[in-house]
């Protein structure tokens, strides 16, 4: 049995790449696998340990790859299987783990399985998807809503039944109550694991099983105008069903057929429901993604409470994790502002548990305004005008000040913001006090200091905008003091146990300063103190 600290997915730093937007190598305006290979040296200098790739499989791209038409191929837009194999070897040679996106809840409507399934009511694959008779009035079987707008049921005139889709009509949900579906996806997992892939991030894993009776969902008493329409009903019967845990346990057994792989679940649920996804006897997901930082009010007291609630809810033996951004949520630099984005980086990389951040967050990329004619996201197209669009967090990586930010020689699929001429990797690498330099320093310290990688989390009482905690292990400790406000803060450091040496400030200008008696923080400053 490996010691906790030797397990790579516990101590490693995870980095999400949205392949369409990372680096284009063939001048078609869309990022690709060769592009990622070309940028591995950048990722090495950044210091991350594992890369998770959003889907690169053949897809009509109705939902930009989350509608898969072939689970074991590579979409020509991204390259060929040979390119993927080259990426695997190059990444492993550089010491990176590679995580793929597994999208088992639904396929594309162009997937041969669905084409067969919709062919006739007695097709052998009919029961691979969720087909239902119309309601008495001919309408959809129940009141379930698609996350991307409208009913989640689409009528198929040829066979006079409805099929269910939690997302787009082009993304029919697979029927996970059917063992044949389970086996087919298990074989997909084995295909990639056999190629050396180090694990999966499983898309909408809490959606896999739906109520066997398809009961109507209850209305959401807290629905607010201006929120997406699917929030009008709760998802009591359409997600997070008890039987899902058996499905995940089976996936985990497939993962465990191979050495040292990881199973990560995408799960948007309150913390007390989330932790159930570690599974009985921890035989579920290794890391049920913890998205609490994506939606919290950005204040010291609410973050302190989230950490405490999460730490308290974790089952024995469960390893925590924290996520700062992804391809579905507004950029952290826009959510919390550019100054607090540095504080957020220190928070993410000093909390207990595996940190995941999103490409471009390390250079402070912000949400990019997308002109109406350039909108690509189907969510925004179906539910316009209330700000649900995800294009703004999916814009091309800003590598340098040349045309299209060095991302592509052609017009990129999404625009870059004007400020890319300053806010780009080349410029920020040259600036010893940039946010990029901060990320590197944080990752370096995390690698160096055992308390940060695997030490206990010990809260220290604080007030106002100050968030204080200690990470400690085997006689070594560091204290993290984060000022979540924009005004300076001073506290007596002796009694709180903060006397020591500043290891890092988010401003990158106080290293080796001593804290003795008083700790002074500037507005929007975080410091790490070796105590
Ligand atoms: C997940 C993905 C999101 C996608 C949805 C449907 O939430 O992260 O991008 O649209 O699933 O597959």
Descriptive overview:
- The chain has 531 residues and is an alpha/beta fold.
- The protein has two domains: 4-104 and 179-214 and 244-441, Glycosidases (TIM Barrel); 456-530, Golgi alpha-mannosidase II (Immunoglobulin-like).
- 25% of the residues lie in helices and 16% in strands.
- The strands form four sheets. An eight-stranded parallel sheet has the order 9-8-7-3-2-1-11-10. Strands 12-13-14-19-16-17 form a six-stranded antiparallel sheet.
- The chain is globular.
- 50% of the residues are buried.
- The model has no long low-confidence stretch (mean pLDDT 97).
- It binds alpha-D-glucopyranose.
- The site of alpha-D-glucopyranose has 9 residues, from loops.
Q: How would you summarize the topology of this molecule?
A:
Layout: H1 8-11, E1 14-17, H2 33-38, H3 40-46, E2 50-53, H4 81-93, E3 97-102, H5 112-117, E4 131-132, E5 153-156, E6 161-164, H6 179-194, E7 199-202, H7 244-256, E8 262-265, H8 271-274, E9 287-288, H9 292-295, H10 300-313, E10 321-323, H11 332-336, H12 338-350, E11 354-358, H13 378-382, H14 425-430, H15 435-448, H16 450-454, E12 456-460, E13 466-473, E14 476-483, E15 489-492, E16 500-505, E17 514-515, E18 518-521, E19 526-530
Parallel strand pairs: 1-2, 1-11, 2-3, 3-7, 7-8, 8-9, 10-11
Antiparallel strand pairs: 4-6, 5-6, 12-13, 13-14, 14-19, 15-18, 16-17, 16-19
The structure holds alpha-D-glucopyranose.
List its salient traits:
2 domains; eight-stranded parallel β-sheet; alpha/beta; 531 residues; TIM Barrel; 25% helix; six-stranded antiparallel β-sheet; Immunoglobulin-like; binds alpha-D-glucopyranose; 19 strands
């Amino acid at each position: 049995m490996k010691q906790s600290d030797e397990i790579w997915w516990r101590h490693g730093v995870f980095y999400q790449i949205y392949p369409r937007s990372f680096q284009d190598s063939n001048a078609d305006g869309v990022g690709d696998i060769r592009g990622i290979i070309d940028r591995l040296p950048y990722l090495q200098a950044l210091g991350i340990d594992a890369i998770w790739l959003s889907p690169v499989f053949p897809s009509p791209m109705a939902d930009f790859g989350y509608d898969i038409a072939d689970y074991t191929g590579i979409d020509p837009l991204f390259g060929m299987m040979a390119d993927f194999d080259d990426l695997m070897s190059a990444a492993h040679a550089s010491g990176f783990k590679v995580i793929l996106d597994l999208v088992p809840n639904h396929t594309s409507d162009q997937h041969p399985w669905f084409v067969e399934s919709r062919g006739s009511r007695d097709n052998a694959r009919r029961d691979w998807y969720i087909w239902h008779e119309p309601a008495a009035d001919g309408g959809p079987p129940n009141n379930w809503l698609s996350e991307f707008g409208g009913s989640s049921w689409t009528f198929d005139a040829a066979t006079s039944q409805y099929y269910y889709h939690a997302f787009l009509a082009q993304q029919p949900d697979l029927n996970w109550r059917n063992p044949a579906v389970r086996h087919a996806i298990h074989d997909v997992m084995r295909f990639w694991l056999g190629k050396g892939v180090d694990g999966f991030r499983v898309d909408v894993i809490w959606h896999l099983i739906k109520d066997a009776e398809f009961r109507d969902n209850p209305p959401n008493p807290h629905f607010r105008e201006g929120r997406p329409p699917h929030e009008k009903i709760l998802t009591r019967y359409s997600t997070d069903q008890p039987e899902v845990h058996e499905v995940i346990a089976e996936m985990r057994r497939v993962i465990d057929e191979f050495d040292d792989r990881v199973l990560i679940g995408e799960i948007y649920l309150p913390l007390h429901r989330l932790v159930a996804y570690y599974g009985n006897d921890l035989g579920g997901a290794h890391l049920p993604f913890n998205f609490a930082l994506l939606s919290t009010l950005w204040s010291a007291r609410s973050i302190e409470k989230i950490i405490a609630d999460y730490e308290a809810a974790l089952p024995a033996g469960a390893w925590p994790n924290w996520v700062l951004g992804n391809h579905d949520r507004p950029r952290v630099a826009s959510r919390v502002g550019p100054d607090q984005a540095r504080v957020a980086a220190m928070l993410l990389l000093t909390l207990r548990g595996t940190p995941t951040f999103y490409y471009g967050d390390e250079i402070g990329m912000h949400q990019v305004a997308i002109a109406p004619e350039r909108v690509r996201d189907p969510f925004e197209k179906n539910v316009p005008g209330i700000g649900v669009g995800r294009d703004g967090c999916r814009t091309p990586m800003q590598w340098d000040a040349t045309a299209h930010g060095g991302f592509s020689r052609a017009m990129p699929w999404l625009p870059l913001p004007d400020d890319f001429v300053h806010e780009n990797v080349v410029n920020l690498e040259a600036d010893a006090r940039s946010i990029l330099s901060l990320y590197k320093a944080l990752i370096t310290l995390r690698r160096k200091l055992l308390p940060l990688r695997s030490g206990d989390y010990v809260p220290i009482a604080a007030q106002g905008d100050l968030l204080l905690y200690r990470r400690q292990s085997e006689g070594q400790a560091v204290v993290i003091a984060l000022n979540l406000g924009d005004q300076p803060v001073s506290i007596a450091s002796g009694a709180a146990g903060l006397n020591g040496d500043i290891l890092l400030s988010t401003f990158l200008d106080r290293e080796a300063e001593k804290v003795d008696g008083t700790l002074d923080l500037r507005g929007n400053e975080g410091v790490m103190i070796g105590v």
